[in-house]
Amino acid sequence: MEFSSKLLERAVNEVSQLPGIGKRTALRLVLHLLKQPKEQTSALSNSLKAVREDIKFCKSCHNISDVELCEICNNPHRKEEVICVVEDIRDVMAIETTASFKGLYHVLGGKISPMDGIGPHDLNIKSLIEKVKEGHIQELVFALSSTMEGDTTNFYIYKQIQEYNIEISTIARGISVGDELEYADEITLGRSIINRVPFESSLKL
């Protein structure tokens, strides 16, 4: 692809590095921005800069936040004794869209994957175990993707906390094996949360 402007070429190259964006789509987006008022383009660039520089991670659940404690953890109407364990921030958003879960979350930041060099100590597992040890949690809900890595992560956490007197459950298998939570439709995901089953039962499947 030939460019008449180095500035345009640079912008297209940067945009094309985004997931799912090829060079042609990047060019179309950049040309679209060129047609917009400068104020609109500046607002976009400023918001992206603010996200990169100013966004925080909740000190309790590791979700993205504007302050030290996210709005979900700071909400007095949430059930503090029920924690939903998820892989990624996108999974929190997916579950919240269903309006079927009223507890809190714990974002692991990934899942155990030896093939990718990701072990338990690379994830937010230690802080989760510390929460369980504090004795305030009554139920832990595993809501990781139904993959080998997701099941391995669930089992690892289960082995670390099984001696504590809490209920450990997992979302129902309305989510197909191998599927990621963020791509599940709201109704299926919502029912999977509501109809969660004891984790020990899932080990026998």
Give an account of the 3D structure.
This protein is α/β, with parallel strands linked by helices and 205 residues long. It has helices at 6-15, 23-35, 38-54, 89-98, 126-134, 148-161, 186-194, 199-202, and strands spanning 56-57, 64-65, 79-86, 103-107, 139-142, 167-170, 197-198. It is built from 8 helices and 7 strands; from the N terminus they run H-H-H-E-E-E-H-E-H-E-H-E-H-E-H. The strands form 2 sheets. It has a 5-stranded mixed beta sheet with strand order 4-3-5-6-7. A two-stranded antiparallel sheet has the order 1-2. Helix 1 (6-15) packs across helix 2 (23-35) and helix 4 (89-98) packs across helix 7 (186-194). The radius of gyration is 21 Å and the shape is elongated.
- Uncertain residue ranges: none
Order of strands side by side in the largest beta sheet? 4-3-5-6-7
The oligomerization state is single chain
Question: Which CATH class of the largest domain applies here?
Answer: Alpha Beta
Summarize the structure.
The protein has 205 residues and is an alpha/beta fold. The protein has helices at 6-15, 23-35, 38-54, 89-98, 126-134, 148-161, 186-194, 199-202; strands at 56-57, 64-65, 79-86, 103-107, 139-142, 167-170, 197-198. The chain has 2 domains: 6-54, RecR Domain 1 (Helicase, Ruva Protein, domain 3, Orthogonal Bundle), CATH 1.10.8.420; 71-202, Dna Topoisomerase Vi A Subunit, Chain: A, domain 2 (3-Layer(aba) Sandwich).
